[in-house]
Write a structure and sequence with these properties.
mainly alpha; 268 residues; single chain; 11 helices; 69% helix
Length: 268
Amino acid sequence: MFSAIIKHRELTGFLIGRNLKIRYKNSALGFFWSLLTPAMMICVYAVFAKILKFNTGRPQYLQFLVSGIVVWQFTAGCLNDSLHAIAGNANLVKKVYFPRVILPVSTVLANAVNFGLTALVLVAYLALSGAADLSAAYWLVPAFAAHLALGVGIATLCATANVFFRDMEHIAGVVTLAWFFLSPVFYDASMQTNMLAGTAFAGHAWIVYLNPMSGILAMYRHALMGLPLTPADIPPAVPWLSVAVCAAMCIIGLSTLRAGDKKFGDVL
């Protein structure tokens, strides 16, 4: 994958730029929305969290929630934008030969650029609100690496599947919603582990981290807010299980795309 991207870096750069331009096409403010959107989102959540008095009894809940939403949006963006990465470029796929992996990967990298800009607003907000704790900022490296691997995995998998099964767009919407609620975005991972206490999985709370977003969210929050990596009854090394799942997803996605590559032209 990396050699293909480097060899076709001009095409990759063009596709990344095109994906970013499409996102803000006909917009008066253009790329400024990458900074304005998260700022407006923070204001919206601040108002409604106060009105609904929705929190988990933890301090700095709004900052906890906003950081989770920002991280989740990168994952959701990779999934949603990749669905038509190959199917939506039928003419290009059928007429010109190039590594097809560039198409879904370019959508992930475009989302990564947008995520980076959004993260700047997030860090500024956390600093201004007094919730920032960057003493473990080095955790951003494994967090982003795992997040990027997961993005590539789901993007290549969804882009390939949507070529052969056009119902993927509808299935992905349901799966994304379910995944969101199963991930500790607006609640703490300890709520999930506590629920396992009275089940057959009691004593195996690490199973929660088979959801890759559980470990990714924990690492980002640890890096930006100094929050514990895991609940007290789980070893701090457990989030690496999520990293392993991300790596596996990346390998599965790339392998799936490689297997379907030869048939893309015929199907499209």
